[in-house]
Amino acid sequence: MPLEGLDGKAVVVSGIGPGLGRGIALQCAKAGADLVLAARTQARLDEIAEEVEKLGRRAVTVRTDITDEASCEHLAEASLEAFGRVDGLVNNAFSIPPMIDLADTSLAAIRTAFEVNVLAALRLTRLFAPALAEHRGSVVMINSSVLRHSRLTFGAYKMSKAALLALAQSLSTELGPAGIRVNTVAPGYIWADSLKWYFDFLAGERGVPAQQVYDETAATTDLRKLPEPDEIADAVVFLLSPLARAITGQCLDVNCGEWHH
Hints:
Elements: E1 10-14, H1 20-30, E2 34-39, H2 42-54, E3 59-63, H3 69-83, E4 88-91, H4 107-134, E5 138-142, H5 155-175, E6 181-187, H6 193-206, H7 210-218, H8 229-240, E7 251-254
Parallel strand pairs: 1-2, 1-4, 2-3, 4-5, 5-6, 6-7
Helix pairs in contact: 1-8, 3-4, 4-5, 6-7
């Protein structure tokens, strides 16, 4: 499906990886944007930058530790140096704390999750706000469907993601007068390499085909399928684009109907 709406715009994406990060970068490029790609692994950045450039768009890579103030300042400076403007910021980086009950989770692990999932997003948004205000730009926070349930072992992760949602809503109010929109996308399952590996593992444990694990999981969604990275990325492109020019402070769930909100 052809995309549009980001022609001539520059978008910064943190947390570039082989799954959703890659999907966001490529869908933004297909919509006409040039990209600044940020992550800790240079080889991964280079690989996805090459894919962006094959789509006819420019891609600048900046090796970044989003938990480090100086590293983030360098990212902001490099982005403006490369394109002279920033129209969109996608806070995609995340950290999953140990998947155990809250009563057994160390406070240090919870602090780490908050540092990456919440404070880093605030740090980057603060740094890019002046540039975003110049072009009435947009911020998209990547959240999770963990917002919609309280299953065992997800407590620490839900705490950090609920805080990220509150952050996005508060920033939408604070930055709105400057013309900056702040919204959230909350994916459920993401049918990418890590989930495929996990389903293969489960299938091996049970002695069944991996497709059976997929079908059983997909049966819990209204559309009987699991979202792919591009499908989630399209929601991000929409919120970055002028099509969403009157939308701010909102959370768009992309989960094929697994949860209703």
